[in-house]
Amino acid sequence: MKMYYDDDVDTEVIADKTIAVIGYGSQGRGQSRNMADSGLNVIVGLREGGSSWQNAIDDGMNVKTIEEAAEAADIIHILLPDETQEKVYNEQIAPYVEAGNTISFSHGYNIHFGLIKPGEDVNIVMFAPKGPGSRVRTTYLEGFGIPGLVAIEQDATGDALQLALGMAKAVGLTRAGVIETTFQEETETDLFGEQAVLCGGLTALIKAGFETLVEAGYQPEIAYFETCHEVKLIVDDIYENGMAGMWHDVSNTAEYGGLTRGGRVITDETKKEMKAILGEIQDGTFKQQFADENATDAANLKEMRVAEEHETIETVGKRLRVACGLQKED
Ligand SMILES: NC(=O)C1=CN([C@@H]2O[C@H](COP(=O)(O)OP(=O)(O)OC[C@H]3O[C@@H](n4cnc5c(N)ncnc54)[C@H](OP(=O)(O)O)[C@@H]3O)[C@@H](O)[C@H]2O)C=CC1
Ligand SMILES: CC[C@](O)(C(C)=O)C(=O)O
Ligand SMILES: [Mg+2]
Ligand SMILES: [Mg+2]
C-alpha cells in the first residue's frame, strides 16, 4: 500500500496552475475554499442563476461560468452530482479542453463506468476525500483534514500524480493520509460503503432499533437518544481508539451484551446480502438502475426523500435537536 502525508508532497508543480472547480455544493464549496486558503489559484465554474453562484460570490470566490472557467484552467476539477457530469462535460467543458490539461474528479464513477471519455492527450486524475464536504472544510479549519484516496487513470504530461497530490494536500487530505488506488477500486468501494454501511446500512440499523423500542411502548424521545443520538458518541470512540477503545470505554455490561448479541442483529444472511449489493455494483446493475432513475427525473428518489423526512424518528429527532440548539429551526 502506498500512502502519502504532507511531507511527501512537493507542491511546486501545481503552484502556477489555474484550477477550475466546477460545482459549489457539498465538496465544491469545501474543497475550493481550502485550495484558495492554501494559496492555489482557484476559479469556481457555475451555471448562472443557480443558488451556488451567489453563495460562492458571498464567500469571496472568483466565479465564472462553467465554459469560461474550463477555458481558463489548466486543471478542471469536476465536483458536480455524478448523474449530471456526463452531459455537462460533453456540452460545456469538453469544447474548451486543451492537450496537456488535467481532468480531475473526487469520485471515479463517470470514468470507471465509461460515461466520460476525455482524449488521450489529457491527464485524468482523482483525489477523493473519505468524508462529507462540510467536514472537509471544518477539519481543515481545525488544522487537520480527512483522509483520502488518489488515482491516476491517464498520465499525459508525466506529472499527473504530483498534480493530484498537490490538490489533495491543498484540500487538507494529506494531513490525515492519502492512499494510492485505481478509479475502479475507489468507485466500487465507495459505492459499497455508502450503500451497505455508512448511509444505507447505518440508517436502516438505527431505524430498526428505534422502531423496536417505540413499538414496545417506550417513549420515542428516549428511543431517539438511545438508538440515534448516541451513535455519534460511540462512533467517535471507535474513530479515535478503534473498537477495542470503545469496548474499554463502555461498561462491562455493554461489552458483554454487545459482544454476545451484535452477531444476532448483523447475521450471515446480512453479509450474504452485502455480497449481493457489491456484485450489483461490480457488474453494472446499480449504475444502470441509477441511470434509469435519473431518466425519469429521479421520481422514486424524490418520493423516498419525502417519506424519510416524515419518519417518526426524524420528527422526534428534529424537535430534540432544535430544543437543545444542535439544529436551527427552518
Ligand atoms: N457529497 C460528498 O460529501 C462527497 C461527494 N463526492 C463526490 O464529489 C462530487 C460532487 O458531489 P457533491 O459535492 O455531493 O455534489 P452536490 O450535489 O453538492 O453539487 C451541487 C453543485 O453542482 C451544481 N450543479 C448541479 N447540477 C448541475 C447542472 N446540471 N449543471 C451545472 N451545475 C450543476 C450545483 O449548482 P446550482 O447551485 O447552480 O444548482 C451545485 O453547485 C461527486 O462526484 C461525488 O460523488 C466524493 C466524496 C464525498
Ligand atoms: C458516504 C457517502 C459519500 O461516499 C461520502 C461522503 O464519502 C458520498 O458519496 O457522499
Ligand atoms: Mg465516499
Ligand atoms: Mg460516494
TrEMBL record:
<comment type="pathway">
    <text>Amino-acid biosynthesis; L-valine biosynthesis; L-valine from pyruvate: step 2/4.</text>
</comment>
<keyword id="KW-0479">Metal-binding</keyword>
<keyword id="KW-0560">Oxidoreductase</keyword>
<feature type="binding site">
    <location>
        <position position="226"/>
    </location>
    <ligand>
        <name>Mg(2+) 2</name>
    </ligand>
</feature>
<feature type="binding site">
    <location>
        <position position="133"/>
    </location>
    <ligand>
        <name>NADP(+)</name>
    </ligand>
</feature>
<dbReference type="InterPro" id="IPR013023">
    <property type="entry name" value="KARI"/>
</dbReference>
<protein>
    <recommendedName>
        <fullName>Ketol-acid reductoisomerase (NADP(+))</fullName>
        <ecNumber>1.1.1.86</ecNumber>
    </recommendedName>
</protein>
<dbReference type="Pfam" id="PF01450">
    <property type="entry name" value="KARI_C"/>
</dbReference>
<dbReference type="GO" id="GO:0009099">
    <property type="term" value="P:L-valine biosynthetic process"/>
</dbReference>
<feature type="binding site">
    <location>
        <position position="52"/>
    </location>
    <ligand>
        <name>NADP(+)</name>
    </ligand>
</feature>
<dbReference type="GO" id="GO:0004455">
    <property type="term" value="F:ketol-acid reductoisomerase activity"/>
</dbReference>
<dbReference type="InterPro" id="IPR008927">
    <property type="entry name" value="6-PGluconate_DH-like_C_sf"/>
</dbReference>
<dbReference type="GO" id="GO:0050661">
    <property type="term" value="F:NADP binding"/>
</dbReference>
<feature type="binding site">
    <location>
        <begin position="24"/>
        <end position="27"/>
    </location>
    <ligand>
        <name>NADP(+)</name>
    </ligand>
</feature>
<comment type="function">
    <text>Involved in the biosynthesis of branched-chain amino acids (BCAA). Catalyzes an alkyl-migration followed by a ketol-acid reduction of (S)-2-acetolactate (S2AL) to yield (R)-2,3-dihydroxy-isovalerate. In the isomerase reaction, S2AL is rearranged via a Mg-dependent methyl migration to produce 3-hydroxy-3-methyl-2-ketobutyrate (HMKB). In the reductase reaction, this 2-ketoacid undergoes a metal-dependent reduction by NADPH to yield (R)-2,3-dihydroxy-isovalerate.</text>
</comment>
<keyword id="KW-0460">Magnesium</keyword>
<comment type="similarity">
    <text>Belongs to the ketol-acid reductoisomerase family.</text>
</comment>
<dbReference type="GO" id="GO:0009097">
    <property type="term" value="P:isoleucine biosynthetic process"/>
</dbReference>
<dbReference type="GO" id="GO:0000287">
    <property type="term" value="F:magnesium ion binding"/>
</dbReference>
<dbReference type="InterPro" id="IPR013116">
    <property type="entry name" value="KARI_N"/>
</dbReference>
<feature type="domain" description="KARI C-terminal knotted">
    <location>
        <begin position="182"/>
        <end position="327"/>
    </location>
</feature>
<dbReference type="InterPro" id="IPR036291">
    <property type="entry name" value="NAD(P)-bd_dom_sf"/>
</dbReference>
<keyword id="KW-0028">Amino-acid biosynthesis</keyword>
<feature type="binding site">
    <location>
        <position position="230"/>
    </location>
    <ligand>
        <name>Mg(2+) 2</name>
    </ligand>
</feature>
<feature type="binding site">
    <location>
        <position position="190"/>
    </location>
    <ligand>
        <name>Mg(2+) 2</name>
    </ligand>
</feature>
<keyword id="KW-0413">Isomerase</keyword>
<feature type="binding site">
    <location>
        <position position="47"/>
    </location>
    <ligand>
        <name>NADP(+)</name>
    </ligand>
</feature>
<keyword id="KW-0521">NADP</keyword>
<feature type="binding site">
    <location>
        <position position="194"/>
    </location>
    <ligand>
        <name>Mg(2+) 1</name>
    </ligand>
</feature>
<feature type="binding site">
    <location>
        <position position="251"/>
    </location>
    <ligand>
        <name>substrate</name>
    </ligand>
</feature>
<feature type="domain" description="KARI N-terminal Rossmann">
    <location>
        <begin position="1"/>
        <end position="181"/>
    </location>
</feature>
<dbReference type="GO" id="GO:0016853">
    <property type="term" value="F:isomerase activity"/>
</dbReference>
<dbReference type="Pfam" id="PF07991">
    <property type="entry name" value="KARI_N"/>
</dbReference>
<dbReference type="InterPro" id="IPR014359">
    <property type="entry name" value="KARI_prok"/>
</dbReference>
<feature type="binding site">
    <location>
        <position position="190"/>
    </location>
    <ligand>
        <name>Mg(2+) 1</name>
    </ligand>
</feature>
<keyword id="KW-0100">Branched-chain amino acid biosynthesis</keyword>
<comment type="pathway">
    <text>Amino-acid biosynthesis; L-isoleucine biosynthesis; L-isoleucine from 2-oxobutanoate: step 2/4.</text>
</comment>
<feature type="active site">
    <location>
        <position position="107"/>
    </location>
</feature>
<dbReference type="InterPro" id="IPR000506">
    <property type="entry name" value="KARI_C"/>
</dbReference>
